Amino acid sequence: MLTFKTFSFQRFAVLYSIISTLQVAVFCQNSSCEQAIAITSWVLDQADTNTAAQELLGEAAIQYEEQQPSTSDLIQVMPQLPWVAFQVQALLGATAYGGAEPGEIFNVVNRLNASDRLGNLTQYEDNVLDVFDIWRDSWVDLANRLVATASNDASQLSDEAKASMLYRASQYYFISQWPFPVSEGGLRAAENSTKAFDDYLTNLKTSRGYTVEYLDIPFSNGTVSVDLPGVFITPDPTKKLPLVILNTGTDYPKEAIFPFGGSQSLENGYAVLIFDGPGQGQVKRQEPYMPLVPDWETVIESVLSEVKTNENIQRYVSLDDIVLWGVSLGGYLVGKACSVLPKDSLKACIVTPAVVSMIPPYANGLIEKLFVPMAKLNSSDIPEGYAEALQNSTTVVDKILRPLLQECDDDSAARSIWTTMFDASPDELIDVLPDYVYSIMDYAGIVTSNVTEIIDATYLGYQGVLNFTNTDISTTKIPILVLSGTQDNLMGGQEEEYFNQLPQDIQDVSKLVNFTAETGGALHSQSGALQTQAEAVFPWLKETLGNAAPSQPSSSNYQRSDAFALIAVLISVLLHLF
User: Fold this and answer.
1) Which segments of 422-561 does DSSP mark as H helices, in order?
2) I want to staple 568 with a disulfide (CB 3.0 to 4.6 A). Which of 92, 128, 374, 529 is the partner?
3) Under a CB-based contact definition with an 8 Å cutoff, are residues 289 and 461 in contact?
């Protein structure tokens, strides 16, 4: 979460937290729209004008941040910019399966460290634009060079080597767009990433004998109909193999999520299907646009229908042995789908992370840093009835946050409050709207880099998110592997609660794996430790699938050894020195 620079800038930091919180609200009539507007207006006014309130907010912000695990605990790359550390950690993990090279990552980090413009960088929101162009240009330059070399017929490179370069280029193009993925450059980088990934697959067909099928999966949300883009890959077209369907979340399209389960599955002898669902990847960039849908089981049903009716896939897949793997928000979506889908629809599910409620990861920052501190003011300074709503996280959610969007009309003062909190110049707005803000636009059905449209998109987006209700885990009928990162400060912390709510007969054939800092897999979705993650996933799949599991990893001319995992660790240690 952002910290406050100055209290004159506080509304924008507050906005960041409010955006996080409103993602998880569900329908509630415990309080009127008018009361929610009145309390929120009073809280924001106190934050701007009341010295005592400002002191309480400052103390609460420090206390809250001190309690949060940092995404840079495992790797120190400019800890002032947590998104840099997280993405570098993710790329280091991808080296185990060819998605990046440690030396190439280190070169970009050196360019960042060498910039004289970073000398006074103390907070994320101070100089994010100064570092963003260096970050973006470094990755794009690297990816362009790799693509140019791989595309040069005079290079004398093997198809295997070209595939390696194009795979890395695809990941570098994608990573270059952070933290502004809907900027003009970000959208162009996403298109380049898709193109490089497709060329990578083309070379895989030649170099390894893989079979690749591109899919257009019909899907309708009842209002809009689209074709969901997908890719099916089998490492051994002479056999019917178990299938892993990889389900991404909001920010990562199918090409970028591939290192988080796709590469590992192929190396372990499984066929793989990746796809962009509603509000994801290419679906965000095609007409008609379709936002994320809350009944995600309907998306999975459409994907499964395509698998079971497409003759080009049927011949390669053991249809009784299909595994659904959700990553990041995909962990929540897959967990929700697997709680509804019938037992015979899937052989197993994998979630990283598992989520019971979206309120703790998204609401606690706002509640603890803005609303609850106001209850500590002198009682004579708090209007009658407000203290009850401000006393704890539950009352804030029920009496303020839910009614603000659920019960207030678009033309009410609630919309004006929202716009007022965005009342900044475009440059200031960009400073305080990191990647998370753009992610929520998936829920609104809007793709834009226009500042005014972003304000509308975030408001509409969180109205849409209100339909994403909590998962009824007790109805799950499919064995599930729950992967937990103990330092996942994005969505983690609920995995044990999730596992304990599974029906006993399903819990008996499921498993919970906790990755601590010592394993290197403690971050969100085991970012940075994908080989370590695979060492937990595939033994469990073999036990769950029994004789249907691949007897041994598929043959490949391109096997990454454990040495690359060691290199990633060594690079991580070296980066601590910078």
Assistant:
1) 426-432, 435-439, 441-444, 451-465, 495-500, 504-507, 530-545
2) 92
3) no
Task: Say if residue 355's pLDDT is above 90.
Answer: no
* 105's tokens: 């990552």
Strand runs labelled E in 158-278: 211-220, 225-234, 241-247, 271-275
Quick one: which H or E segment has residue 514? strand 511-515
Note every long-range contact of 378-386, with CB atoms under 8 Å and residues 24 or more positions apart, other chains counting. Answer: 378/52, 381/50, 381/52, 383/38, 383/42, 385/35, 386/39, 386/42
CA-CA distance, 533 to 482, in Å (whole number)? Answer: 11
Rounded to the nearest 10 degrees, how much is the dihedral formed by the CA atoms of 530, 531, 533, 534?
120
For residues 414 and 33, the answer to whether their CB atoms sit within 8 Å is: yes
Distance CA 363, CA 368 (A): 9
The C-alpha atoms of residue 397 and residue 45 are separated, in whole angstroms, by: 20
Q: Please, which residues have CB within 8 angstroms of residue 44's CB and are 6 or more apart in sequence?
A: 11, 14, 417, 420, 421
- Residue 249 identity: G
The one-character DSSP state at 513 is: E
**Distances 168 to 98, 142, 177, 296, 524 between C-alpha atoms, Å:** 7, 9, 15, 31, 21
Contact 269, 240 (CB under 8 A): no
DSSP code at position 3: -
Q: What is the pLDDT of residue 423?
A: 56
* Mean pLDDT along residues 561-578: 48
In the chain, count H helices and then E strands: 27, 8
Q: Which residue type does 362 have?
A: Y
pLDDT at 70: 52
> Residue type for 155, please?
S
Whether 4 contacts 58, CB under 8 Å: yes
Tell me how far apart the alpha carbons of residues 251 and 102 are, in angstroms, rounded to a whole number. 23
Rounded Cα–Cα distance for residues 213 and 210 (Å): 10
- Listed residue (350, 229, 250) closest to 292, CA to CA: 250
| pLDDT band (50, 70, 90) for residue 211 | very high
> 42 to each of 28, 48, 394, 487, how far by Cα in Å?
22, 10, 19, 35
Q: Are 467 and 294 in contact (CB under 8 A)?
A: yes
Tell me how far apart the alpha carbons of residues 322 and 270 are, in angstroms, rounded to a whole number: 10
pLDDT of residue 73: 47
Give 311-340 pLDDT, tens digit per residue. Answer: 999 999 999 999 999 999 899 999 999 999
Cβ 568 vs Cβ 528: under 8 Å: yes
Question: To the nearest 5 percent, what fractions of the chain are helix, strand and coil?
Answer: 55, 10, 35
Q: Determine the Cα–Cα distance for residues 38 and 141; give it in Å rounded to an integer.
A: 51
